[in-house]
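From the pipeline queue, job 12 of 40. The input is one protein chain; the requested action is below.

Action: predict structure.
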Amino acid sequence: MYTPSDYSQPVFGQPMPPPAPPPAPYGQPLQTAPPPQHMMHAGQWSSGLCDCTSDMSNCCMTCWCPCITFAQIAEIADMGTTSCPVHGALYTILLLLTGCQWIYSYMYRSKMRKQYMLPEEPCNDCLLHFCCEPCAMCQEYRELKHRGFNMSIGWHGNMMRQHQQAAVTPPLAPAGMKR
């Protein structure tokens, strides 16, 4: 077998291979794997505002417990900087104490629209959340699902899943190494 000192010596007359690039930091997409096709398109919502019944489980959850739907959307839009339970608790407190939770939720629709370059339609985000918050949140939820997010595992779970699915190439061995 080879000793560790055999690996560090270049083979006479052959240059050493270039060092491998450093791994991508956690939460950043790998440069070797292009993003999925559906994540590269921007400009249009994947579903309409009133298509709530296309995902009945989310429609029911949003109607009966909007804090859960909002928290899942906000965690993804925030890229995991604030956890789902914190967003849900803040939304619930605003709902129960002031009834102005729509101000909190519209800010995340605006943030999500900017991230994915989506149009502000059919009207202003603030007005949309004031008048029809459940429909707006259902549309946002469906959009994130369409873009490949698994809403139940949150931002960090989605990033770990993305890294596990990315192609991993083995390191190159120097030309003189043989088995």
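Job complete. The chain is about 55% helix and 0% strand.
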